[in-house]
Amino acid sequence: MLEAYKQEILTQTLEMRQREVTEYQVNIDNFILAIAQIGSDPDMQEFKQQLVDLLASNQREQRKSQIMLDVIQAQLNG
Q1: The model scores a pTM over 0.85
Q2: Most exposed: 5, 27, 50, 76, by fewest CB within 10 Å?
Q3: Across all residues in the chain, what is the average pLDDT?
Q4: Contact 62, 27 (CB under 8 A)
Q5: What's the CA gap between 8 and 31, in Å, rounded?
């Protein structure tokens, strides 16, 4: 009974982490495209820097989520 409950929680958590990793990727792709679109527009450089910072933050958070996703998958497979 306890093992089945653990499997259920891990499966739900796996789905949540997969969604989280994907959501970070959507943000990362959007930030990259927006940064490229801004280019060297002098009026948009402050916004561009905000996007660069958000890009770095989202990439870091995605790596964390991916680690947790890998751990959950290992538990489900092991």
Answers
A1: yes
A2: 5
A3: 96
A4: no
A5: 35
